[in-house]
Amino acid sequence: MTEALAADTDVVSRLRERSIEMRLANLELVEVAGSGHYGPSFSCMEILVSLYYGFLRVRPGEPQWPGRDRFVLGKGHACSALYPILADLGFFPESTLGTFTRLGSPLGDHPDMRKIPGIDFSSGSLGHGLSIGTGMADGVRLAGRDSRVVVLLGDGELNEGQVWEAAAYASHRGLANLLAIVDANRVSVDGFTRDLLDFEPIDGRFAAFGWHAERVDGHSHADLLEAYRAFDERRAADPDGPPTVLVADTVAGRGVDFIEGMAEWHVGYLGGVDRDRAVASIRRMFHREGH
User: Fold this and answer.
1) Strand 187-188 versus strand 191-192 pairing type
2) Quick one: how far is CA 80 from the chain centroid?
3) What span, in angstroms and rounded, lies between the C-alpha atoms of 263 and 36?
4) Where in the numbering of this chain does the Transketolase N-terminal domain appear (predicted)?
5) For position 4, what pLDDT does the model report?
6) Which residues are CB-contacts of 160 (< 8 A; sequence separation ≥ 6)?
7) Residue in 177, 175, 193 with CA at minimum distance from that of residue 185
8) CB contact set of 237 (below 8 Å; sequence gap of 6+)
9) How confident is residue 189, by pLDDT bands cut at 50, 70 and 90?
């Protein structure tokens, strides 16, 4: 079972190291596919790493364990950030990563719960994730389970009206076991979110729907782990309390300095010299953060 890593002074350092390794693995997947979502994958890497190595209760050897926490990747196009984590944890062989998007591979450019162990929701069209997660949270509570449900959304995904229908329902039902995380990287496939449909302040909008809302640094493992801990404390104190949303402020393409924050690199391909530059930039980030 993956539990929060032991109360260890090196925990944040370990998570940072994992985030670097998973970014490099993400580059390898895109190399196989010939194109990939660098911007949204790298912006949510610390979120995914902190969840899977420091919070979610899962069993790689028993992916359908009824008592597991559920995770819904609403922004399914960022799956190239998630697949290396699942492989590293042992949900499927690491060799499978080399088949990403190839004919017959279980690893498509959106996750498929019918094919990939460890995936709880098959994403595709954006905007469904929070509704699915809300149903899961209601369901596990009705079943008398202590499972937590986490949904990762993109800020561009908030343009979908179904998100706000789910937000209203979740607070009405008092789903304290539901944690939504918005990867607020300010970029979508059509450009900057501020120019398309600006939902800021995102935390204020969720609060208006009756949620407990906080903003966190989405690239700080320490801040994310603290926010998860506080979520558990509120849930334990009031099991019928409001759901929680963490608005994680992030940078699209984080770690590759020459594409960071650029809407043009929501999706693309870094090959040859550019790929070498990307690897060097990611490794510099690793050393810059104290390694």
Assistant:
1) antiparallel
2) 11
3) 14
4) 22-272
5) 43
6) 126, 127
7) 193
8) none
9) confident
26 Cα distance to chain centroid: 14
Q: Tell me the C-alpha distance between 183 and 52, whole Å.
A: 16
Q: Which residue has the tokens 């591979």?
A: 105
Locus of tokens 């334990």: 236
- Could you give the CA distance from residue 134 to residue 151 in angstroms, rounded to a whole number? 9
As to burial, measured by CB atoms within 10 angstroms (0-12 exposed, 13-18 middle, 19+ buried), residue 233 is exposed
Q: Where are the domains of the chain?
A: 11-288
Range 261-265, long-range pairs (CB < 8 A, 24+ positions) = 261/186, 261/187, 262/39, 262/187, 263/39, 263/187, 263/188, 263/191, 263/192, 265/38, 265/39
pLDDT (tens digit per residue) in 73-129: 999 999 999 999 999 999 999 999 999 999 999 999 999 999 999 999 998 778 999
- Residues 137 and 142: their CA atoms lie apart, in Å, by 9
Inter-residue contact 242 to 174 (CB < 8 Å): yes
CATH level 3 topology of 11-288 = Rossmann fold (3.40.50)
> Look-up: residue for tokens 């196989």?
32
